[in-house]
Each structure stands twice: as C-alpha cells, then as structure tokens.
Amino acid sequence: MNDNHFVTLGIDTSNYTTSLSLAEDGRIISNTRRLLPVAENERGLRQSDALFHHTKALPELFDELFENCEDLRGKICAVGVSSRPRNSEGSYMPCFLAGISAAKAISSTLNIPLYEFSHQQGHIEAAVYSSLMPESINEFISFHISGGTTDIVLCKRKACGDIDCFRIGGTTDLNAGQAIDRAGVLMGLRFPCGKELDELSKSSNADFGKIKVSVKGSECSLSGIENKTKKLLDSNTAKEDVAAFLFEYLSTVISKLCDNLESEYPSLPILFAGGVMSNTRIRENISKRKNVYFASAALSSDNACGTALLAYNKYKTENN
Asked: Residue 3 above 70 pLDDT?
C-alpha cells in the first residue's frame, strides 16, 4: 500500500448506537449503524444491557460494512475506536468496552495500529468532515449536543491530525437530549424520541413570543424546560405545539450562548455536532447566524465516521 492510499476502520459503541465506518484516503466510503433496542415507555438502557446489545450487533454490522467494498477487507491499515465519552479524567462508560474489545482483536490479528479517541472527538471530526467549514481552520468552538451531552468545547487541531477538546461551557444540569426524550415519553412516543418530535413540530404554527431561558456566560440550565413541557401537556396543548415549543426553547438557549461566546471568542467559527443538532427547527433558527457550521443531518447522530477519519489523520501523519 503506498503512502497515498490508506484505509481505516472506525468503531463506536455509544449508549444507544452500534456503528462501524470505513474511510479510504480520508473519505467515508461505507458506514453502518444500529440503534440499541429500548423497551416501550422506558427512558434508556442500563449499561449492562447496552454492552450486551453492542456485542450482539457488531458481527452482523461488520458483514453489512463490507457488502459493497469486499476488496477492502484485507487493506485496512489502522483502527480507530471510541473508548470513552470525553477527553477528561474519569470519563468512562462500560458500553465502550464492546468497541474496544473488537478493535483490539482486529488490531492484534492484522498487526495494525489501534488509536483510541473519545466519543466526543469522533462527533466533532464527523461534523468537520460533513460541514462547509474550511479545512484550513485549526481552532474553533464546537457545540456537542446529544442525549448524554450538552457541551461547549474549544477545539484545536494538533499536528498529528488529532483534535484537542477543552470544555468551556454547556449545561449545568439536564442535557438537551434528555429533555427531548423525557418530553417524548410523556407524549407516548418511542425512545429515543427526537425524530418523532421533529416531525410533530413541523405541523405547528404556534407563536411562543419571547421565551425566557436560563443562560449565564457559556453555561445554561435546562431543567426548567422539563417542567414547562409538562405544564403544556397537562393543559392539553396540542402535541405538535409542545414539540415546537421544546425546540424553540432550545434554539433560544443556543442562540444566547452563541451571543456570549462571540463576545469572548470573536474570531472563532462555531461548529454544531450531536444528534440534537439534526433537528429541523433548531438548525433553521441557528443557521441564520454568521460564522456557524453544521454537521450533515446524517452525521449528526452517533456514528463511527469520526473515529475512522481521526485514525486516518493519525496514520497518515505517522507514515508520511
């Protein structure tokens, strides 16, 4: 294999999605994922159950990954895997052990390098890849907003192609994805509820006026949104209007945080990653701002694309 042709494998086993990806010369050529099953009326999974479902899903997903690129099975030169939620001390979730075990087995069998990244790094790299943000930008701010995370991260690209992530803000209590899923479960929707709520909200023409939110500097409190959505449901507000209010509330929070960040970091672009940022209404509201970029809707949610790309960056740097 010459220096200009590298194939890397990405593995991500987050709390709710098993995902595999192949990158060839820094381009995603195959990507497959599977949501973990959650029982009706439940708000999530125990880690032991998540680990079991990942272990069960991985062999089947490997077959799917290579369906249209059989010729690349023997050409993988490096493996990237999500081994922890964030790049911070004590960041750990058992569900990532399934991915780590698979990655180590492949690395050892093929005698190829294994690179470990955080789930957050993978999300951000996938957003960089699928957004319109210029490749020349090596320092930026990223919002990582998902079911388990509502972080504002200062990102710096290292010489090895990796991304350093420093948390500079975010929620002080409830995560945005938690608020969305809790509201959806109250409405009788199937967990995770983001996609169904997104579709519901498109039918709403309600005007909510000026929405009061709790934002201070680069931090926000989202616990109030849960009580407000409960009150709307208790007062028999139409489900589509409750869904629309939920996303308008989150849009207002994000916009105010952006205002404050632009005062402190006036020259840095802002990149949005994470499953919540694939929401139609939030994207439409925030995209009106200047110097903002979004992951594609397909790569906003949990996937292994970022880890495959990060592995490519590191391997290419080490072998050129």
From this structure: no
pLDDT tens per residue across span 257-284: 999 999 999 999 999 999 999 999 999 9
**CB contact set of 217 (below 8 Å; sequence gap of 6+):** 169, 260
| Residue 1 reports pLDDT greater than 50 | no
Where are any strands of DSSP class E within 7-160?
Answer: 7-13, 17-24, 27-35, 76-84, 114-118, 139-145, 150-157
Give the global pTM.
0.93
Token reading at 46 = 């125990």
Instruction: Check pLDDT > 60 for residue 135.
Output: yes
Instruction: Name 89's bridge partners.
Output: none
Q: What angle do CA 25, 270, 247 make, to 5 degrees?
A: 110
Q: Distance of CA 199 to CAs 36, 178, 230, 268, 280, Å?
A: 21, 18, 20, 33, 9
Among residues 189, 194, 193, 184, the alpha carbon closest in space to that of 229 is found at 184
Q: Which residues pair with 81 in a beta bridge?
A: 11, 116
Q: Which has the closest alpha carbon to 58: 12, 22, 92? A: 12
- b/e per residue 146-172 (b: at least 16 CB within 10 A): bbbbbbbbbbebeeebbbebebbbbbe
**Nearest one of 251, 206, 203 to 225, comparing CA atoms:** 251
pLDDT digits (tens, 9 = 90+) for 62-76: 999 999 899 998 899
Sign of the C-alpha dihedral, residues 195, 200, 203, 207?
negative
What is residue 217's three-state secondary structure?
coil
DSSP structure class, residue 115: E
